[in-house]
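Example 9 (inverse folding). The structure is encoded as follows.
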């Protein structure tokens, strides 16, 4: 479990100046949960990623990963439990060939050769990369590079996988395939996933959404509950999925739609229910 209790963090711009990035944040994420983190620029998302991967440490409060305190004395224990994939795969791909890059993390753990080989095989297979295992990284497409980066993170056998906007540079169809592959890993490995994204559609595919604003958690729950708060989300610079937006506008015009509307199927059902209720009963 990831436990974040009363965590605040400030970036210091001088001896006395401090810029708060997170403020009194409380958050718990169980192993196996599939969580999206959303918020406008400057909401604290990137800072949260840095804290959870022991790049930075809380100014106040505490973080524990499966009971291990996140501090400088336990940095490597934390990083064995948490792997991260960044927005631009070129920032973390370090070897020349696909299979060598996937093996890089386990090799640094000092694992036996047969264990490294097993992890590489498993991770390549999970991301559908077997056929390009011998390819040069520089010859891959953006989508392939991102899958290699995820395979490398998966080879570390983390309890939690953190994805820092990994789909932002990808076309929508490829981004959706990547999210689907991550979902499969989440279910198969019971691996907790925290996916930082600007895409409301992507966020709607997750089991839970956490909304950050000015370093604070303002909403936390299933997509249907979170996207119910249309005006509040827009007030902090976020939008909602198209179907939820249409339903909100229709309600504002007096159409009595019932229930939460998250996708086109929900909207169609809600409109059908309204149409059915307005049919005059036959004498």
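The amino acid assigned to each position is listed next.
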């Amino acid at each position: 479990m990831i436990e974040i209790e009363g965590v605040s963090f400030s970036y210091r711009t001088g001896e006395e100046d401090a810029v708060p990035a997170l403020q009194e944040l409380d958050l718990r994420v169980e192993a196996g949960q599939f969580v999206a983190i959303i918020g406008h620029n400057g909401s604290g998302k990137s800072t949260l990623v840095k804290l959870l991967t022991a790049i930075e440490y809380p100014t106040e409060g505490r973080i524990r990963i499966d009971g291990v305190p996140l501090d400088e004395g336990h940095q490597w224990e934390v990083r064995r439990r948490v792997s991260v994939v960044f927005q631009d795969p070129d920032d973390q791909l370090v070897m020349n060939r696909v299979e060598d890059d996937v093996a890089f993390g386990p090799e640094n753990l000092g694992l036996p050769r047969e264990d490294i080989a097993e992890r590489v095989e498993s991770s390549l297979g999970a991301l559908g990369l077997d056929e390009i295992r011998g390819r040069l990284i520089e010859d891959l497409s953006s989508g392939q590079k991102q899958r290699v980066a995820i395979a490398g993170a998966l080879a570390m056998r983390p309890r939690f996988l953190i994805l820092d906007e990994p789909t932002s540079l990808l076309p929508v169809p490829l981004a959706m395939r990547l999210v689907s592959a991550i979902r499969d890993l989440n279910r198969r490995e019971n691996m907790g996933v925290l996916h930082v994204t600007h895409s409301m559609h992507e966020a709607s595919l997750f089991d839970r959404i956490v909304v950050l604003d000015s370093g604070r958690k303002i909403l936390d729950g299933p997509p249907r509950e979170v996207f119910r708060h249309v005006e509040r989300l827009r007030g902090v610079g976020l939008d909602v999925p198209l179907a939820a937006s249409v339903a909100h506008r229709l309600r504002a015009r007096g159409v009595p739609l019932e229930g939460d509307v998250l996708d086109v199927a929900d909207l169609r059902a809600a409109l059908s229910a309204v149409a059915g209720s307005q049919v005059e009963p036959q004498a």
